[in-house]
Amino acid sequence: MRSSHDVVVVGAGLAGLHAALTLQDAGLDVLVLEAGDRVGGRVRSLDGPTGVEEAGAVNIGDGYARLLAHVRAAGLEQEPVTVSMREHVIVAGGHTGTPATWAESEGNPLTGAERALPPALIVAGALARGNPLTGARDWMSPGAATWDVPLTDHLRSTGVSDAAIALADRAGTFETLESTSALAALRAAQRATRHAPQTSNIVGGNTRLPESMAARLRTPVRLGSAVTAVRESGNLMVVELGDGERIAAGHVVLAVPFTSLRSIAVEPALPEPVARLVAELPYPALTKYHLVADRPFWEEDGLPPVMWTTNRIQRLLPWRLADDGPSALAVWVTGRDARVLDALGEREQRRIVLDELARVRPATAGAVEITRIVSWGRDPWAGGAWAMPLPGQMAALAAAVETDTGRLQLAGEHLSVEDSGMEGALESGERAAARVLARHGLA
Ligand SMILES: Cc1cc2nc3c(=O)[nH]c(=O)nc-3n(C[C@H](O)[C@H](O)[C@H](O)COP(=O)(O)OP(=O)(O)OC[C@H]3O[C@@H](n4cnc5c(N)ncnc54)[C@H](O)[C@@H]3O)c2cc1C
Questions:
Q1: Ligand 1 neighbour 422 (Cβ under 6 A)
Q2: Does the model's ipTM exceed the 0.90 cut?
Q3: Which residues make Cβ contacts (< 8 Å) with residue 25, sequence separation at least 6?
Q4: Where is the domain boundary, 158, 174, 193?
């Protein structure tokens, strides 16, 4: 056995780094093992032709208290995010235009008041109407099981038509509306109401945050260290790496997505229903095509650059727009469309994305180029964008959050109670660290 530590944290995403710093600050000796060649996990900033671009987490909510404390501690600066879906182009049923023209369009399959509703806002609007969840922990109460049904059922019960559901299902952040728990979606909507609408990024790239957290660790993060097994042995946990190296620890925090945990042997096995959730919790595929536009094509056709489409390219979101120089944008594709594209060669993907853009938005022809393709579904250490519980999985998720798994603690955004995304990851790391500290009598 090469080394021994009070705690080994597996995964240098925000959850793992926050857990590690909390444990270190309490006086424990902590080693963080990271499979990849960088820290940050799903926070990943890229150098693009117009400056830094975010391939992973983008928006920092004003209410992200833990995250903002790290930002302040590291002396990092923030800049406001200005992109919103409020002004966007709808491409559907042969229509390419604004929400105003969509309401009158022959391609609009909806009737009555739904005709005026942009498809991108159908689900969000229905979730906001009379959300039964008012408190951050309401989703964990036994009564909440009533809403742990397919999101499609819930949408119908709030008066959304089948035609509107079919339309909304074409593009968004869910795998499909049918395979998503309505309770998970209501929880996300409830969480969103607690954060002011203004969001920010970190100047120089969001990755500077996990990098600054890692820099505070006394023992540097070990990169390129994929963990393959964690086994209890007497009073210790033994962590095994892919190359056969073994590291002993009093406690282990596994701060990796369940997609990745599936390939880590854990002994003794995690208790039910946690083990089943590890095996089954879905993570939708999400592939981003980062684009550079060498001229403002939106000025040529007079339409907003943001686009929501029923095509396989799904959504076009701007990152940095300039009237007199290159701009950065990205096509976001989720779910089945992303998996189909992921299965193709890179050249074929580029051709399809650029052809589809040019077809629905002729002004983009010759104006945009793909600079990077980032597939979260194919990322070996992410296996998808974020956890998105199936109908019927929320009680098991609540149990997984509440189960103290002893010397082996789990963390990651998927195990958050009150917040989602980056702040949820920090929250889960804090809980795992608190349980370890309680066992050390340091809580
Ligand atoms: C495209 C995209 C956009 C997003 N936008 C936002 C947003 O705007 N706002 C927001 O708040 N959140 C956003 N998120 C979500 C946010 O990025 C995540 O919730 C958060 O970063 C997850 O942190 P984590 O520590 O739980 O997991 P991760 O960041 O995934 O960290 C897990 C780490 O474990 C490592 N690992 C995995 N397996 C092993 C192994 N076997 N051995 C060792 N190491 C391993 C991984 O390499 C990784 O570094 C977005 C995510 C994506 C993908």
A1: yes
A2: yes
A3: none
A4: 193
